[in-house]
């Protein structure tokens, strides 16, 4: 009878015990066989002390894969998916005066799909290629006088255009002052009626 019991003990697999370990800061699940074994206990202490062991590597589950992906994602936490500049907000004292400049001089068109009546101030959205300028009729906290003559030395909005010489002729006809790029590249700087600096660079 004792012989049968001994044979059975060889055929029946030893009891298993779920074990949660951490491998390089990542939690993994494995199975510890024969928990009473001195070798397994030693291995467990080693795993806890060093954070890794061959058993954990061999028995890693899907949970490890998921957490490893999360760890990789954490490295890209600053990558929130920048696409482009959506619009630039410019302050103006009188919306009609500004629209006359941006529409009649620069030839920009209003984006009628953008709401104009849902904000507590007057404004307009103007198409600049696939992006926009948002004109906002609000008090300007910046001084309108004493600003640099050359808009390139002031905060400014840069618009890419095809022909700087053609825009130069348009500004000349309208009597609007401007300066050219100091580096010699094809670019022109001017200001709107509220002294907002604008750069037009040829691409």
UniProtKB/TrEMBL annotation:
SUPFAM superfamilies: Glyoxalase/Bleomycin resistance protein/Dihydroxybiphenyl dioxygenase. InterPro entries: Glyas_Bleomycin-R_OHBP_Dase (IPR029068), Glyas_Fos-R_dOase_dom (IPR004360), GlyoxalaseI/FosfomycinResist (IPR050383), VOC_core (IPR037523). Residues 84-203 form the VOC domain. PROSITE patterns: VOC. Gene3D superfamilies: 2,3-Dihydroxybiphenyl 1,2-Dioxygenase, domain 1 (3.10.180.10). It holds the Pfam family Glyoxalase. This is VOC domain-containing protein.
């Amino acid at each position: 009878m004792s012989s049968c019991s001994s044979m059975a003990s060889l055929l029946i697999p030893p009891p298993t015990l779920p074990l949660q370990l951490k491998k390089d800061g990542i939690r993994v699940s494995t199975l510890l066989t024969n928990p009473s074994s001195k070798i397994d206990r030693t291995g467990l202490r080693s795993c806890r002390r060093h954070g890794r062991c061959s058993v954990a590597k061999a028995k890693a589950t899907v949970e490890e894969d998921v957490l490893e992906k999360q760890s990789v994602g954490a490295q890209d936490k600053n990558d929130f998916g920048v696409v482009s500049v959506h619009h630039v907000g410019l302050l103006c004292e009188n919306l009609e005066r500004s629209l006359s400049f941006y529409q009649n001089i620069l030839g920009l068109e209003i984006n009628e799909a953008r709401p104009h009546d849902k904000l507590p101030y007057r404004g307009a959205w103007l198409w600049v290629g696939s992006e926009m300028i948002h004109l906002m009729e609000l008090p300007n906290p910046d001084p309108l006088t004493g600003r640099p003559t050359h808009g390139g030395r002031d905060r400014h909005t840069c618009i890419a255009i095809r022909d700087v010489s053609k825009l130069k002729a348009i500004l000349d006809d309208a009597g609007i002052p401007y300066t050219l790029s100091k580096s010699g590249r094809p670019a022109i700087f001017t200001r709107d009626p509220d002294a907002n600096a604008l750069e037009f660079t040829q691409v």
